[in-house]
Amino acid sequence: MASSPISLLLFSLFLLLLHQPLSTSSTLPKSTLFRPNLISQPTPSITTTTTTDTPITRYFEVTKPIKLPHTKPCSYLVLRHDFAYTYSKPPVLANYTPPSDCPHQKFAKIVLEWTATCKGRQFDRIFGVWLGGVELLRSCTAEPRSTGIIWTVQKDITRYHSLLMTNQTLAVYLGNLVDSTYTGVYHVDISVHFYPAAVGLINGEANLGNSADLILPVSRNLPLNDGLWFEIKNSTDVESKKFEIPRNAYRAVLEVYVSFHENDEFWYTNLPNEYISANNLTGTAGNGAFREVVVRLDGTLVGAVWPFTVIYTGGVNPLLWRPITGIGSFNLPSYDIEITPFLGSIVDGKIHEFAFSVTNALNVWYIDANLHVWLDKTGMETEGQLLSHTSLEHTISLVSNFTGLNGNFLTSSSRSVSSIGWVKSSHGNITTNVTQTFNFSNFMVMGNHGNLQIVNQIIDFNNSVHALMPTSSTHSIESFKRFPLYLYSNSVDQGNDTSKFVTNLTLGFSEERVAASGFGFLVSSLKNLQNAQGIMLVKGNLVVSGIGSTQQAYQYDGSKFCYFRNVSSSNYTILYDKVGNTCSKKFRPRVGFGLAKWLPFSAQRALTSVFRDNKKLH
Predict the structure, then answer these.
(1) How many angstroms separate the CA atoms of 525 and 559, rounded?
(2) Among 202, 319, 373, 544, which residue has the fewest nearby CB atoms (within 10 Å)?
(3) Where are the beta strands (DSSP E) in 9-148?
């Protein structure tokens, strides 16, 4: 599990396990199901070979390569540090200056690169990288082995261009502890690669790739003995940050970072409170299996995040993630919420506030955000008005059917948030229509006197932004995401103080995306699916044998390029790995002019009607 910097409880649980046998009773101990309190570093009794001749192992997360221009980058090492005794210590800081000595100052692509090595035994650790308080990367470390590991994360940070062109303070928080048992020190290099634009290259694709002129941090201020993220500790906790926006802003997008830990690390497996109470369970994570991150602006709900179920490198069964890590574990996704319809109420030169909360939360969630702001280059003060805003309260339905520790539960929920507003700038009067729709279903089965748990969950997370220009053309971004999850875990008593822990997992991240402007559009499709199987045989407190296998199929199809990778592994060994750049047979990007065929008729009609009424007002 990804260790949070405020919890020493995990350490005590691991150490306690060294002196007590695992329980297989029906009291649902945390060592059962999805929180195995086992030291995951293989010992000589485990069937994994760890001789001194074993080469260093490279861990990786499967993802498409960053499409780079054919230019030589200007590369800079911005931080080198060994993270050892950094738990509850201030973030590591470094002075950052933009690349003034690079021959060209117009960059088509900027890439952040994190490379780390580690040897020994250590927990997985959540960490963050901030520049001027703006979060650039949320990630999880890999769990090392005695012969050493290495991993690299590359992230496209071109959208932070304006921030990267100014002097800033780089902050990195990775809370780690080292002692005689947990010996792993993370040796880290952070570099930034600036790729100059080729001659004649036009920045942005279809006017949708232009980065913001200003990025405001919505995070905690230094100094801290922790990360810059806010900590949400329960369902009533609200964390907020005040800000002021320039009066010539004409667009704003809030980028939200989210991660979940401790009692909510596996929130999708958490049991209903009525089940916990009926069975007099203690130490069992509750509040059910639904979570929602709520974002408010000056008290008004402006958007939500129903997060992807990232599984960290020590989660469920650590043997599954060696060397292929879980989807999103090395580069946690961020989530964009379009704030433009509300600009009319915040370009007044006054102080405003973003606030975050998590429905049904248990300790602890780490949340912060970056506010991307586009400014009128003429300096013209903008004005605007929110025309309509609808945020229906989400409904949570729970159907329970259980007797004792066995039973099943169906949790479902849905929500829709929509806003329409206009902003007047030197670009003219632009009306923006934003809609978020969410659907959630979680079917959970408890069996084998509480030692078996099955979770089958689907999250649909759809987002659309349609901006109607004065010329009646439409700029549009539509995203349709689906996050499927299937998780099976069973603890079977083998007799002689021995138990077998069996885990099967399916984890998916799919997205269909259309971005259009005027007469051009970009289409992409991502299907990313992992299947994993793991078995551990435990006698007393000792893992006497274990195996973890993972298979992953990754297919990205885009208007610009395609990429696929099919890879499988078992206990550190790659069994099969095929990579290519052909598009799937089902992908047929439509070529033509106009956006109408991509937009729902209702959205076209609503925008046209609003624009017509708006012109009457002005």
Answers:
(1) 9
(2) 202
(3) 57-59, 74-83, 92-96, 107-118, 126-131, 134-140
Question: Using one digit for the tens of pLDDT, what is the confidence trace for 33-78?
Answer: 454 445 544 433 333 344 456 789 999 999 999 999 999 999 999 9
Nearest to residue 213, comparing CAs of 187, 244, 248, 181?
248
Rounded percentage of the chain residues whose pLDDT exceeds 90: 75
Which of 299, 219, 296, 288 has the alpha carbon at shortest distance from 258? 219
CA 150 to centroid of chain Cα atoms: 22
Helix ranges (H only) for 43-173 are 161-164
Closest CA to 371 of 139, 92, 159: 159
- Rounded CA-CA distance 86/204 in Å is 40
pLDDT in tens, 565-595: 999 999 999 999 999 999 988 776 543 333 3
Q: What is the reported pTM?
A: 0.89
List, for residues 9-20, the tens digit of each pLDDT value: 333 333 333 333
Q: Using CA of residue 577, residue 578, residue 584, residue 589, what is the dihedral sign?
A: positive
Tokens describing residue 155: 């992230």
DSSP line for 260-299 = E-GGGTTGGGPPPHHHHHHTT--S---S-S--EEEEEETT
138 in Cβ contact with 335 (< 8 Å)? no
Give the largest CA-CA distance in the chain: 82
105: left (phi over 0), alpha (psi -120 to 50) or beta: alpha
Q: Which two tokens stand for residue 149?
A: 């590991």
